[in-house]
Amino acid sequence: MQTLYSILSVPESADLIEIKTAYKRLAKKYHPDVNSDPKAEAIFKDVLNAYQILSNPETKKIYDDRLRYQRYQSEVRKQQGRNTQSRKFVRPTPRYRPPNPFSKNGRKLTPEENRKATMYAFGFVMAIFLVVVMAKIGYDWYQEYLFEKKLEPIVMAMDTAMKYDSPESYTALFTAFSSVPEKDRLSINWEWRRTEALKYLAQRADFHFEEQNYSKAYQLYTMYLNQGGLFLIRIGNNMITCMQAVGDREDLIAALERVANADTDGVTVAYKTGKVYLEDVKDTTKALFYFRLARNRIEKSYEQIYGKAWFVLIPPRNVPDLHAEVYLNYGALLFQKEYYTRARKVFSWLIYIRNLSPYGYLYRGYCYLEQENPTAACRDFQKAATLGSQEAYEVYKNMCL
């Protein structure tokens, strides 16, 4: 027979400390916030009910009395069953009746006394049942009241955010989340509710982006990321578009850097970031960093397709114009910083993938010139001039003829 003690896995002699310890152990295992299995929820309800009764000395005493009586009744029924089975074969013997723990001095009860005792026990059990039901209803009501009280600031802030849809209202919403004490967060599903609020914030940012309200969209995207929202390349690209439309250079650079560093395979944004640093900010060191980052990602993609010997196997016609632009700008910056050997190698690769463009020959000629190799320089200037570079023609005419 399952008892409240067996539900908590404690002996019937367990004291209050053992009962509380067993309840905490089972609650950690079967609480709905920890275990989403529907069976776990049913087990937790049984555990909670057992704990509520056994942790209260008065209800525990009532339950113990009822349990003893139930066992007494069970023993009586078993003995009656045995007597019935043996009556056909043996001479009737005086029936054994276990001593009634509710009788006085173990005296045998008369039928009338037995009927009254049964009615008393039934009324006693019903009284216990009503007390338990009322206690459960009261407990559930109080728990719901506490739940709503803890959740009230978040609900009010969420309603305000949905009504006004402003950065200030969303700031107030996440402030309300932060104000919830750590000890109360599990009981109100704090993590899940905050994640849902972040999803809603991202949806509103997307809405304003689609409506071309770029300034507000950028504010909401920024708040979403600052509050721990998941960074997606799509969001980063939207932020770049917002800042390009608004014209805020600092925020544009911040958005570009965030996407360039997050998108580990992306070339376009890394290249754009380098161009902004080169042309707008005039920071050649940062520009060189992002051009190099774009170059590394290009060559990583080549290696994934063609293997480690990609530089031999890749057909020039398969190289996109963007990749050629990356190599041209990367080489030009290396040349500007006087890394002539490295720059010359970059321009040699550019000549291989774009042999009809004069720029690779022109800049490699300058590298040879700085390295005091005029013969090779003149050869490259002549080739660049043949391909239509007026600058190469002037240099070749003045230095090589």
TrEMBL record:
The keyword Transmembrane applies. One of its GO terms (molecular function) is protein-folding chaperone binding. InterPro entries: DnaJ_domain, DnaJ_domain_CS, Hsp70_co-chaperone_J-domain, J_dom_sf, TPR-like_helical_dom_sf. The keyword NADP does not apply. SUPFAM superfamilies: Chaperone J-domain (SSF46565), TPR-like (SSF48452). Residues 3-67 form the J domain. It holds the Pfam family DnaJ. Keywords: Chaperone, Membrane, Transmembrane, Transmembrane helix. PANTHER family: DNAJ HOMOLOG SUBFAMILY B MEMBER 9. This is DnaJ domain-containing protein. It comes from Marinigracilibium pacificum. The lineage of its organism: Bacteria, Pseudomonadati, Bacteroidota, Cytophagia, Cytophagales.
